[in-house]
Amino acid sequence: MWKRSKVTDQTAAGQTGIKKKSKVPGVMITQFVEELPEGTSTPDFTRKPIALTIQQGKWAVLKAIVVGTPTPTVSWGRANGDVYFHPDMCLQKYDETSREHTLEFPKVAPEDADTYKCFATNEYGRAVCPVALNVIEVGFSMSKEFQKTQVEDTKDIRRRLKKRKDDGTREERQMEPDEKVWEILLSADKKDYERICAEYGIKDFRHMLKKLTEMKKEREEEIAEFVTHISTLKHIEVHDSDCATIELDMDLKDPASKLFLYKDGVMVPFTTEESESMKHNLKQVGKKYVFTIKNLRSEDAGLYSVDVGGINVFSTDFKVPEVDFAVKIQEVKAEERQDALFQCVLTAPTDELKWLGKSTPLSNSEKFEITVSEDKLIHKLMVRDCMPLDAGIYAAVAGIKSCNAWLVVEVDKDSASKGKKATRKTTLAGGGDDQDLMTIAKEQQELYQKKMDEKMEVAKKAQAEREAAEALAKVEGEAAKKAAAEAKAAAKAKAKAKAAAKAKAKRAAAATDAAAGKQKAAAAAGGGAPGVGAPVDKGVGAAGAIGAGGGAGGAAGAGAGGAAGAGAGGGAGAGAADGGKGADGGGAAGVGGDGTAAGAGAGGAEGLGEDLEGEEYDSFEDSDGEIEGEGEGDEAGDGGVGSGEGEGEGEEGEGEGEGEKGGKRKKRMRDGPLVPETLIDPGVHFHAGLSDCKAIIGEAAELECKVNREDCEGLWYKDGEEIQSSEALTISKDGTFHRLKIHKVTEEFAGKYKFEADGRKTESLIVVEDPPRFPAEELKAFKNPVTVKKGHKASFKLPYFGREPIKIQWYLDGEELSEEATIKLDYSEGCSSLLLTKLQRKDSGEVKMKLKNEFGTVEAISQLIVLDKPTPPIGPLEIVEASSSTIDFKWRPPKDSGGCKIDNYILDRQQVGRNTWKKVGPIGPEPKYKDSDVDHGRRYCYRIRVETEMGTSELMETEDIQAGTKAYPGPPSTPKVVTAFKDCINLSWSPPSETGGTNILGYNLEKRKKGSNLWGTVNPPDEMIKGKGCGVKDVVEGMEYEFRVSAINNSGAGEFSTPSEFVFARDPKKPPGKVIDFKVTDSTYTTLSLSWTKPKDIEAVEDEAKGYFVEIRPAESTDWDRCNSNAITMTSYTVKGLRSMGMYWVRAIATNDGGEGEPQELDNYILATPPPVRPRFTDAKIKSFMVVRAGNSARFTINFEASPWPEVIWLKDGSPVPKKVTISNAEGTSQLLIPSSERSDTGIYTIIVKNIVAQESFSVEIRVTDEPKPPGPVETDENVPGTVTISWAPSPDEKRDDRLHYMVTKRDSSKSTWHTIADHIFNNRFTLCNIMPGREYQFRVYAKNDMGSSTHSESPKWLIPSKRAKFTVTTPETKACDLTCPPKFLVPLKMHAAPQGYECYMSCAIKGDPTPHVTWLRNNISLNTNTNYFISNTCGVCSLLILRVGSKDTGEYKIVAENSMGRAECSTKLTVRE
After folding, report:
1. How far is CA 284 from CA 228, 247, 271, 303, in A?
2. What's the pTM?
3. Which of 719-748 are b and which e, b meaning 16 or more Cβ less than 10 Å from the residue's Cβ?
4. Which residues, including other chains, have CB under 8 Å from residue 1099's CB and lie 6 or more apart?
5. Residue with more model confidence, 792 or 658
């Protein structure tokens, strides 16, 4: 699907490709042009890369040095695959000092071994040099287990990606991150691999590429099962119409294959029709599939996947950035050839904005310039040199948000400039106040930073919680481990105690010493004083006898050797603490008390006293590890009495004595709390780092960064050296902001600056530039317009400064100026001037001085105004009023006032018919005049001139204007009926568009009854209607009227309007009721026929219906759509354009003049389907058996009828048809297609057509076969005399074709032809009878089936020798035969009648020996020498041919044959028809 293209040495299209030799061996040069221009050369290598053999994991470098004019570009390729450039894998570098081009491998791997090619290319040629890189593998690069893990990991990911249900859909579950990233990578472009890996934390880039290659190969094989070709994969793209699209071109093998759309692994429903209710839509145009997501929201973000038949073919990750428009683009009006600027401000920084012009994506070009501010919030689009074709809607798209605005290009309407290209303008349209935009951008940046800080705090808090939870879990895990170890040690001690209890009695004496040691240990641990063999606090103990421990003091006593002691206070096992637990190591113990006082029983512990004395134990594990004895301790619930065998109670005891605690063990205490109460301070980090700065010489520059704490102090460095505040720069701190300000930038301030605080640092560069600039005062003076008179001169001069060289250009109204007779340009150091002489009015315009050097461009703009006389006023006149006493008119000002203010218009008047002009005089600067000194019916002409301070213009002469002309107004609009009642009808109308040159004074209104020819006035003749409406009260109830109106001006009444519609003089009607008996009369898949009865007419409640409307509503919608826009009068209607099998609700509404009545709905929804019809096959003759040659396609089409639309199922031998079989269903027909049939496709195919009425089926047997292979060797045998048995090996196709049979043919020595002797033989043997001895027989066997027969298998020749007597043949004597005879006509000539102009052919047959001589004659004249006749004699057949028969050929034709034996004649006649 995505195939890598290898680097080849082919030349580009149209290039000559001349091969040249290089001085360096192994370098091939291709020259693109036949002749090199002077001073140019093709690329070549002065140092070629050297082959390298290196150990795996080392740093490998391939170096090359190239030359050529112009300087060639260098690229690298490899023989197998592409070179992946990644910091961890491969880097391409260039060293300007050594001029070396290098290809570096930081840690070379075995898969990097290949033949690499270095390409050096310029516009005149290309040089190529190959180099080999060999990698020596050290040991195993990865263990077998690791390799196995990688393979299993890849398979596991693919298995999860391919997990599907039976119907091919995915399981309903959210995708895991590892599944998601691999699905994204499978459809991503190579240039996006690094970004995706960084986003999802994949660090082993090399391993990722290897695994991805395997997965791609596997997916291509899976896609090939369903898709023939796939291309043009367009990732999700947002449009300005609030929708996003996914495009791909696919050629499906089966057009009926199902397509699925998933979002993050969950299926998304979509529709294939245009629907506003569905969010997702699929549109198919040919092989192009376009998925559309409408009404975009932030929750639409996710991974979208397109599956075909259960196989993923394409995935795209849709990310919705949290960005919106703070300031949207506004409409821009620009003049032709002017630049237009659109600008907007975003709420969050965005690298790139998508600009659209008339729905077409825009990019930086000569026509469009796209710029972004440093903070990435202000985005601008400039449309250069606007033309009328550039007008339209322009849009900006950021994430899922968009805004659009119009670009209006105003064309110069001056008739004089039509057909000429307008002058290029340097002004800008649409540019707003940049300061306002920057203020808004700063506010948005602060808001964005605040949001980021809040998110950072939330992230920190979550991180702290995670770390605390991990610490707690770690502590609990360690505690659990320790408890398990203690339990194990206790069990071990118990086992040792059992062994000690069985020790010999001779060691009983040591028990006393052990008891003493135990008492010391108990005293050290719990403060109790034990007694050993003597009274201690009223306790007595003796060796080998009963000892009593306890007493009032609650001290413990211990008995020795196998004796038991009992005391009132009670004794407990060694090591009891807090009344809790004692050790099981005591040999004998007293009766347990309440556990507050504890003693130690020795029980024969050897050397116990010495081991325990003066020691402190932190846990049972320590003591158990050091005590060794022979006593046996058994655990009991509430204490007990020790026995002489050393069994003691040491777990929990309850005693009656009250005494102080003794013998308590010391517990190990934790140094700190389980979970730290405070988190470790993460230290200083930057909210905003330093940004690179371009500083201009002489101006100020500032660097600023922001940290997270106000108490942070930091240091500033320049080029690695610390800097402090000085006269030239100031270092300041304002809260969390740290600033470095340079007051006046010079060259020495350029360099790398660094701010460091608490080990964190941020860096930036200050690049010092010296662009061209103008002095502020001189620039301000230059901007003032320069005004001169026509023919005079104007000069412009402006100093400048900046780094040389500086290119200086002067422009006048957008056109660059050069030295001419009237233009003088002066360039001196730091100053330039322009002198324009003999100026004309057309020279007025914008004067611009443009400076440019390597750092930038600057412009200074001024205006040149050349004063001249004005042009004449612009006609024609617009007559405001032309009455008998007044002529009022106006005109348009001149196109050019000469650069001056208009002082006056000067008018002269002439009465038509006279030669003199009367001066009306200056009338002021307004272009209008009202002449009251006129005579009724006279015609007047006027001359108008413009007067300014520069002089008077040429005159404009007007057309004749008549005073008091009878100009009647035009007809008003047709009167409209506003309301109608039984005693009044209210009307309204609009005034006429043609007023006759005067104001409309009023209107006349007339009415007429229906059926009458007479119009009657409504208003009295002397009282016109002043308004544009009237209420007519002179009406008769129940009568029908129409009305018309005319307008009146000073000349009189004009034409009447067209009459209004007829209206009844009656009160408004009541709406009609519901229609009756509303029902469906017929239906199809696309139409629905309805009928109803008109509603009843109930007086004063429901009036008669005049028409009807039919409305329809799809079941999935809530909106009703009206089928007929105008009311119908019939009580039936057919709705068209329905969706097949769609569910619809239908209703009918009656209407009249009073409005619409209540709708009447059908009781239930209607299915767009014809009436039920049982499925039936309509073909007259249907084949039930088909034979198809293997490899050809098998096609079976069958027609049927059924209603509603049936379900069509195809089965093969009772099971569903295989995937390779294509089923195409259309209305009333179904087709089965096996594209490339095989023998395994043979079977009985059954079509089942069923609907809700019934089902019908039909079966056809399709046999796929081929011409059979020939049978094996043929053998013959004579089992019975006179017969022969022919047998043969079966054909290889016999087992696969049950209709295969055999045919046998024979040939004997008496005949040369083959005859069939047997056919339709289904075994491999045939016996032939009636064999003739002495004849040689040969047999052929053919295999035959429905497609034909095979080539034959031939038997060897077979012969039964004949046993005959020898006979002799006597040959009779022969005599010579005499064949001589006289000539004789075997076939005589026939009569001929030939049409004139056609050919005539005569022939006859002659016999004779010797061969007779033949002579043709016409009318007894010989024709043998006549070349007009073709005469031939072939084997006795004599012929005469006449090519074109004419009248001269008419006559008797005779043929004479003669030889030595005689003579014969034959004649005929030829008749020529005209």
Report:
1. 17, 10, 11, 22
2. 0.33
3. eeeebeeeeebebeeeebebbbebeebeee
4. none
5. 792
